[in-house]
From TrEMBL:
One of its GO terms (molecular function) is catalytic activity. InterPro entries: Diverse_PLD-related, PLDc_3, PLipase_D/transphosphatidylase. PROSITE patterns: PLD. This is Inactive phospholipase D5-like. The chain crosses the membrane at residues 62-83. It comes from Kryptolebias marmoratus (Mangrove killifish). Keywords: Membrane, Transmembrane, Transmembrane helix.
Length: 512
């Protein structure tokens, strides 16, 4: 093409004397003119082709520039989502000025048919503690609960309508309710159970917003007052759940607002009831999982580990016929027993859903200490009272661990499936090294609760060549025809303060 764009005579014709005029031109001139015209047309074609190439090149550049602009816009959006740019500063609370002079209170629900000795350890009733939180609320109450069944009659209503009229009633009183399809997100459920009040006070523990947690189950948790450092962190966990409504995937990028202020690698030193403690933060960036918190507490124990849980089963079941050994916690306990000679006590609930394989795994742990010096594993089962309708009352629904150095409070059973698929929130409070023996910290308080339950008349020790039949009533139930009757008890009507009514005043809540 470049050779064609050079306009020069060709074919040996002499172009001198060519003129443009009227009249007859010699044949040579006519031929030359034809050649020139062809060359001119060829030049015009080459110019048009060059312009077309430039146009296509310009279009390509525009496409590339547009793509770069789009990528830049997405990058900016991601950066903005991770940086506080809207002028909101979480009510002015920062890592430097949040309140660390906290007050902590253990709360329990002890069913009516469970009684301990008069001089045994006792704590504030759970229903009273939750009402105290509501009385302190001035702006907002944020609640995460796997269930919302404050009346026993709600069970039948939920089965029929797949919804709760109580939640609808709260919505009519200006409460905001988000429901999350966790099955689509993790193939599991959210078992987290906590309250956050004004980003200043909070509750976390084993109890759900379930009438059984307030009446027939043995539950334990903590109320923490005037503790904006940790309350703000727990509020961020609430915000994480809150943003998952209507989503069928978990984001790959999290907002900076969901990052923890404190975690296992950066604990905050705060004061609990005039005793110094160092709790970890309750999974966006830098946030510790429940499993990591449990592992750390077990690994740091020097003398004893006391565990009170509803279920213990180190298995992951992909289906009803296939199971895989899940060694994360079970292996840590074995390591503590054999390598560090830490004394371990396991207090496990014995109820209708106790898996018979639980006893096999406990025996496996206990067998490690046979003919081993300074190796001690003890296991007991908290057996609740069976009712005439086959249900169990007084189930020990606690989920906590206490060691000589720390406590852990959580929402998950120690079952492989729970940690693989379900979400939970936990609190770790460490006992400082320089504490005096006279100080009765929350660690000592929880140890006293465990020992009260351990030595109570409701526990049975693991016996040689004997498996306790915790779910014996299921055999009888399966032989009956028709649905099992449900024990009816309107809990809200018997509380010192009516939680059902008080909750209508104000709050945001999150349920499944």
């Amino acid at each position: 093409m470049e050779q064609r764009r050079i306009r020069c005579p060709t074919g040996g014709h002499d172009m001198r004397g060519q003129t443009l005029g009227f009249g007859f031109q010699p044949p040579a001139v006519a031929a030359s003119s034809i050649i020139t015209a062809v060359q001119q047309q060829d030049y015009l074609a080459s110019v048009w082709l060059r312009r077309r190439e430039k146009l296509e090149h310009s279009q390509q550049k525009c496409i590339v520039i547009f793509a770069l602009v789009c990528c830049f816009a997405v990058l900016v959006a991601l950066i903005f989502s991770a940086v506080d740019i809207w002028g909101e500063d979480e009510d002015g609370i920062t890592e430097d000025n949040c309140s660390r002079n906290c007050s902590i209170v253990l709360v329990e629900n002890i069913p009516e048919d469970i009684s301990f000795l008069d001089n045994s350890t006792s704590h504030l009733p759970l229903s009273v503690g939750l009402n105290n939180l509501l009385d302190k609320a001035e702006r907002v109450v944020e609640i995460v609960s796997p269930q919302w069944l404050l009346y026993s009659s709600d069970y039948e209503q939920v089965k029929q309508t797949l919804g709760s009229t109580k939640l609808d009633n709260l919505t009519n009183h200006y409460a905001e309710v988000h429901k999350v399809n966790t099955t689509a997100l993790t193939k599991g459920n959210i078992h987290s159970s906590f309250w956050v009040v004004d980003r200043k006070h909070f509750y976390i523990g084993s109890a759900n917003m379930d009438w059984r947690s307030l009446a027939t189950r043995k539950e334990l948790g903590v109320l923490v007052y005037n503790c904006t450092c940790l309350a703000l962190d727990l509020h961020r966990v609430f915000s994480l759940y809150w943003g998952l409504q209507h989503k069928d995937f978990i984001p790959n990028f999290w907002s900076k607002r969901l990052f923890p202020y404190f975690n296992r690698d950066k604990p905050v030193n705060i004061t609990f009831n005039s005793a110094e403690s160092s709790p970890d933060a309750f999974i966006p960036k830098d946030r510790s999982s429940d499993l990591e918190a449990i592992s750390r507490v077990i690994q740091q124990a020097r003398h004893f580990i006391y565990i009170s849980i509803n279920d213990y089963l180190p298995l992951v079941r992909s289906n009803s016929l296939s199971s895989t050994y899940w060694s994360r916690i079970d292996g840590l306990i074995r390591e503590a027993l054999i390598l560090r000679k830490v004394r371990v006590r396991l207090l496990i609930s014995c109820w209708e859903k106790t898996d018979p394989l639980t006893f096999n795994f406990i025996w496996s742990l206990k067998s490690l200490c046979m003919e081993q010096a300074n190796c001690s594993l003890e296991a007991k089962f908290f057996c609740s009272k069976s009712q005439s309708d086959g249900s169990f009352s007084g189930i020990n629904h606690n989920r906590f661990m206490v060691t000589d150095r720390a406590i852990y409070l959580g929402n998950l059973d120690w079952v492989g499936d729970e940690f693989m698929y379900n979400a939970g929130a936990g609190l770790v409070i460490s006992r400082p090294e320089n504490i005096t023996e006279k100080s009765f910290t929350v660690v000592e308080q929880l140890q006293a609760v465990f020992e009260r339950d351990w030595f109570s008349r409701y526990t049975l020790s693991l016996q040689t060549n004997k498996i306790h039949v915790c779910n014996k009533h299921q055999v009888t139930k399966s032989s009956r025809s028709g649905p099992m009757p449900i024990r009816v008890r309107h809990v809200c009507g018997v509380l010192p303060l009516d939680i059902c009514t008080i909750l209508k005043r104000f709050f945001c809540c999150f349920v499944l």
